[in-house]
């Protein structure tokens, strides 16, 4: 176990009581999972992206998507859209829910998102980014942040220009995923970029990309001098990374205890049946070291009650590792 050296920083006037954060991930970081990770040690929460079109049209799933627990504070909503007017309308709507800050998604590499000009497609329009933030700053009281990638592709790595425009137009922190849009989640994250943005900026810079094990957290701090580290995909396969534990250090009892808590949070939010079904996407990653067969996975997923699921888990899990 590695003791994480948690140091606070601020986003505007909002104190973030630690410097290791859960990254927003569509389809994963809903309220139950965010709260689960906060209890393990993440120092702030950011929602899955809130689609401006869903706000304007009144998507029936929107209330669930924007729900957050007071225990998640400091908490921020992430907005995704390409239309400045709709972004502003969405921001006003979300401001009424009293988050601690608002974040703009300028990094999502998903094809449906970029085809509409949102997410990382905005990297192609730095002036538009500036206009959006100027407008938001003029009308909102909440601190504003942005999550970016380093460019569209290797030939258009405009991270310094985008970061400068963001800071000049009101952003009070920038989350930097150190890959281009074309890379997606493949290849190596370029931590030198995070270091360069940090050197130029006068606001907090949060680094993101290629945090696989606990030691990588300190390596990123040492390499980039960033103000905080944000962890995405590794949090799904090893949520205990926020407690300073690598996956091979987590005991059998800790796994069962944490999974029981996650089930309770999911069922409390979504109901017993749906909550148990939604656990599956986390189980696939958390239990990956067991290399379960297809039949074994199916037998787990067919369990319709929490008690049956844990009875099956104890059958499949090798002896007591405590």
Short description:
The protein has 322 residues and is α/β, with parallel strands linked by helices. It contains 14 helices and 10 strands.
List keywords for this structure.
15% strand, TIM Barrel, 2 domains, 14 helices, two-stranded antiparallel sheet, 10 strands, Non-ribosomal Peptide Synthetase Peptidyl Carrier Protein, Chain A, alpha/beta, 322 residues
Describe it.
This protein is an alpha/beta fold. It folds into 2 domains: 9-243, Alpha-Beta Barrel (TIM Barrel), CATH 3.20.20; 251-316, Orthogonal Bundle (Non-ribosomal Peptide Synthetase Peptidyl Carrier Protein, Chain A). Helix content is 43%, strand content 15%. It is built from 14 helices and 10 strands. It has helices at residues 31-40, 52-57, 62-65, 84-95, 111-115, 126-139, 159-168, 191-200, 214-224, 234-237, 252-270, 272-286, 294-301, 306-316, and strands spanning 9-11, 14-16, 20-22, 45-51, 75-80, 101-106, 144-149, 171-177, 205-208, 228-231. Strands 3-10-9-8-7-6-5-4 form an 8-stranded parallel beta sheet. A two-stranded antiparallel ribbon has the order 1-2. β1 and β2 form a beta hairpin. α1 (31-40) packs antiparallel against α11, α4 runs parallel beside α6 (126-139) and α7 runs parallel beside α8. It is globular and about 60 Å long. The two termini are 14 Å apart. The model has no long low-confidence stretch (mean pLDDT 95).
């Amino acid at each position: 176990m590695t003791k994480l050296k948690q140091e606070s920083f601020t986003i505007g006037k909002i104190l973030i009581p630690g410097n290791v954060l859960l990254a927003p991930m569509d389809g994963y970081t809903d309220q139950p999972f965010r709260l689960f990770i906060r209890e393990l040690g993440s120092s702030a929460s950011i929602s899955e992206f809130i689609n401006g079109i869903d706000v304007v049209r009144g998507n029936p799933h929107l209330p669930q998507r924007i729900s957050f627990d007071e225990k998640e504070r400091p908490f921020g909503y992430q907005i995704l859209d390409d239309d400045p007017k709709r972004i502003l309308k969405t921001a006003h709507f979300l401001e009424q829910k009293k988050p601690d800050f608002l974040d703009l998604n300028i990094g999502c590499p998903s094809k449906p998102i970029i085809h509409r000009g949102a997410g990382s497609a905005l990297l192609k329009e730095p002036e538009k980014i500036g206009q959006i933030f100027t407008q938001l700053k003029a009308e909102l009281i909440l601190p504003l942040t942005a999550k970016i990638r380093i460019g569209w592709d290797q030939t258009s790595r405009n991270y310094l220009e985008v970061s400068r425009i963001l800071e000049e137009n009101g952003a009070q922190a920038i989350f930097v995923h150190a890959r281009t849009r074309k890379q997606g989640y493949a290849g190596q994250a370029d931590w030198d970029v995070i270091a360069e943005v940090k050197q130029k900026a006068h606001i907090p810079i949060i680094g993101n990309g290629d945090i696989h094990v606990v030691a990588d957290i300190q390596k990123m701090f040492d390499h980039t001098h960033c103000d905080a580290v944000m962890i995405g995909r590794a949090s799904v396969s090893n949520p205990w990374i926020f407690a300073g534990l690598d996956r091979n250090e987590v005991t059998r009892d800790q796994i069962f205890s944490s999974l029981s808590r996650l089930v309770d949070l999911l069922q409390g939010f979504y109901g017993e049946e749906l909550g148990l079904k939604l656990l599956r996407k986390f189980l696939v990653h958390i239990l990956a070291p067991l290399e379960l067969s297809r039949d074994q996975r199916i037998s787990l997923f067919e369990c319709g009650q929490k008690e049956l699921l844990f009875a099956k888990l104890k059958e499949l899990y090798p002896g007591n590792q405590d």
